[in-house]
Design a protein that fits this description.
about 110 residues; alpha+beta; four-stranded antiparallel β-sheet; 3 helices; 4 strands; about 25% strand; globular
């Protein structure tokens, strides 16, 4: 019997901070995700130099099902523990929902058979 190739699925070490409080109310101000990510923009991977302001790959704004959110890479905890705790404490202090993230593999649909 032929074996099917195994697809390696990596679980991302990230979590989302959603712009919703624990009781489902929208967090204000509406640009909170950009502000938080902007405050963390100085945390860049080693060797990255950019003259322009850019969000850190460790803390970046996004939208999740129409809700403003911030994606936090847990690698920040090892790179700069105080920055990591600042972001986590921001979520706790503002009673924001935090959701674990996982990375889904890129699956390209097979072309139709002829």
């Amino acid at each position: 019997m032929a074996e099917t190739p195994q697809t390696k699925i990596d679980v991302a070490e990230e979590f989302f901070i959603l712009g919703l409080t624990s009781d489902g109310k929208q967090f204000r101000p509406s640009d909170w995700a950009d502000r938080l990510s902007g405050a963390m923009s100085c945390f860049q991977p080693e060797g990255v130099r950019n003259a322009r302001l850019a969000f850190s790959p460790y803390v970046r704004p996004t939208m999740l099902n129409g809700v403003r959110a911030v994606v936090v890479d847990k690698a920040l905890k090892n790179i700069e523990p105080l920055a990591y705790h600042f972001v986590v404490d921001f979520a706790k202090d503002n009673d924001l929902q935090v959701v674990e993230a996982c990375e889904l593999p890129d699956v390209k649909p097979k072309p139709p058979a002829r």
